[in-house]
């Protein structure tokens, strides 16, 4: 520490010897940034030697990292679930006949085939109600 220097209590003065060419580059950069050579040197040193984080800053970083990992885990679970669903859909697409495809009857070993007919969405596909027997004989 150099005696007689003005500082704010946290600042210490030091003398540094450097090549004239380096001093000229620092002066040029300081002028371009609109600051003193001292501020330019301090800025460069702070960038090269950043302060160590405090305990509370480290705790916050750990908490943020844990939150990100939890999000990533949920994303991974969603991704795996969506992959399983895509695989299931592809499997079903291979098993479900399309309209017009000839299909063997699944309950018999006979070569009986039928053509798949898919009803239109507005067609009434409900089974028709059976007529109830009446006590009166049919008319002739």
How would you portray this structure in words?
The protein is mainly alpha-helical and 140 residues long. The protein is built from 3 helices and 2 strands; from the N terminus they run αααββ. It has helices at residues 20-33, 37-48, 55-95; strands at 102-104, 113-115. It has a two-stranded antiparallel ribbon with strand order 1-2. The termini are far apart.
What would a concise description of this structure say?
By secondary structure, this protein is mainly α. Helix content is 48%, strand content 4%. The protein has a two-stranded antiparallel sheet.
H/I helix tally:
3
**What spatial form do the alpha-carbon principal axes imply?**
rod-shaped
| Range of helix content | 40-55%
Characterize the biggest β-sheet: 2 strands, antiparallel
Q: Got a strand count? A: 2
Q: Can you write the helix and strand succession as a string?
A: HHHEE
Q: Can you list the strand order of the major beta sheet?
A: 1-2
Low-confidence stretches: none
Over all CA atoms, what is the radius of gyration? Answer: 42 Å
Strand content: under 5%
* Measured distance between first and last alpha carbons: 128 Å
Task: Kindly report the average pLDDT value.
Answer: 76
Helices and strands: which structural class?
A: mainly alpha
Give the secondary structure arrangement, pairings included.
Elements: H1 20-33, H2 37-48, H3 55-95, E1 102-104, E2 113-115
Antiparallel strand pairs: 1-2
Helix pairs in contact: 1-2
């Amino acid at each position: 520490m150099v005696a007689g220097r003005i500082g704010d209590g946290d600042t210490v003065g030091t003398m540094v010897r450097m090549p004239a060419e380096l001093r000229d580059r620092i002066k040029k950069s300081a002028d371009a940034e609109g600051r003193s050579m001292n501020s330019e040197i301090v800025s460069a040193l702070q960038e090269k030697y950043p302060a160590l984080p405090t305990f509370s800053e480290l705790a916050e970083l750990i908490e943020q990292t844990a939150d990100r990992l939890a999000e990533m885990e949920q994303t991974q679970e969603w991704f795996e679930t969506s992959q399983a669903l895509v695989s299931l859909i592809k499997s079903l697409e291979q098993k479900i006949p399309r309209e017009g495809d000839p299909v063997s009857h699944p309950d018999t070993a006979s070569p009986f085939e039928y053509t798949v007919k898919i009803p239109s969405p507005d067609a009434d596909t409900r089974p028709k109600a059976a007529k109830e027997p009446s006590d009166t004989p049919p008319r002739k």
